[in-house]
Amino acid sequence: MPSPSQYERSAIQQIHLWKNPRRTWLDTASDVISWPVQKVGDVVAQVPGFEDVVGKATTGIIGLLNDGAHYTVRVNAVLDDYKILNGGHTPSLKDICNLDLHVVDKAMGWLDTKYEGLALVEGAAVGGSAVINPMVALAAIPTDLVALLTLNLRAIGEYATYCGFDISSQEERLFALNVLAYSSSSTDVAKQAALAQLVRIARDVASKATWKQLEEHLFVQAIQQIAKALGIRLTKAKLGNVIPAAGAVIGGGYNAYFTDKVCKAAFYLYRERFLARRYGVDIIEITVPPASTLTPDFEESQHP
């Protein structure tokens, strides 16, 4: 088995640091900025039945959004990027794992900038309606969430494809949703629950263990658990859009902020998986133990 290049060893260190970050002044500033959003969401979340209504509303669509967003990822366009970098030879997805990580990073380019810009424009357009009529902004939240989730699932799909993973498989669809769950987590407990799922799937795939296809009802259950958590978290956050005057700033800012977190998570996690597939499963840094089951319980009502 080959050894990682200097570039790849440096990348492994960066991935480990990302998984175990030190809190900075920027994190504190972010907490201050998000305070009004969180307070509005917390108040509304106390309404009886809020979690059930939101959970049921989002569960039915997130699986469809996941499939739909990934179908829009143009695999041939990704492979064409590699063709340019690879002297005119077009690789297959399986061939990508034979490349050095620096080639993969160069092919990916500035994906985060592209998607953050799209998220900022979309969120500001919806949030700006709060300046005119808060009720209009409130009614627009479901549409905004669909657009935000679709955008971010497509971003995750692109990162996965550039790293050589087949996003049509069951394990990759679950992995993508858990990237969203991790990125939307506002507590350490919630982050650890999502990360445990990500570690489990990543290690299973990297060790080339035969993936046991989840029974349909278990796969649906896993999707439901993730969808409920996402729906509650993002709805609470988007309720900040109804604050007059601040709506456009909060709406666009939150969408870009969330998309930045998703892109960073996808960037580090898929690159780690790329390296683990090439150099062995021990590359995957276990910040938390792998989950014992692929049907997570995020305990959203206890850890908002």
Topology (elements, then pairings):
Blueprint: H1 6-19, H2 25-45, H3 50-71, H4 75-85, H5 93-96, H6 101-108, H7 111-127, H8 129-132, H9 134-162, H10 170-184, H11 188-206, H12 216-238, H13 247-279
Report on this structure.
With 304 residues, the protein is mostly helical. It has one domain (49-283). The protein is built from 13 helices and no strands. Helix 7 (111-127) runs antiparallel to helix 9 and helix 9 packs parallel to helix 13 (247-279). The longest helix has 33 residues, at 247-279. The chain starts with 5 loop residues before the first helix and ends in a 25-residue tail after the last helix.
Quick structural gist:
The protein is mostly helical and 304 residues long. The chain is 72% helix and 0% strand.
CA-atom Rg in angstroms:
19 Å
Q: What spatial form do the alpha-carbon principal axes imply? A: globular
* First-residue to last-residue Cα separation: 44 Å
Count of β-strands: 0
Approximately what portion of the residues adopt beta-strand conformation?
under 5%
Q: Helices and strands: which structural class?
A: mainly alpha
Q: Tell me the count of domains.
A: 1
Q: Count of DSSP helices? A: 13
In helices, the fraction of residues equals over 70%
Give the SSE string.
HHHHHHHHHHHHH
The whole-number mean of residue pLDDT values reads 80
The residue ranges in which pLDDT falls below 50 over 5 or more consecutive positions are 245-249
Largest sheet: none
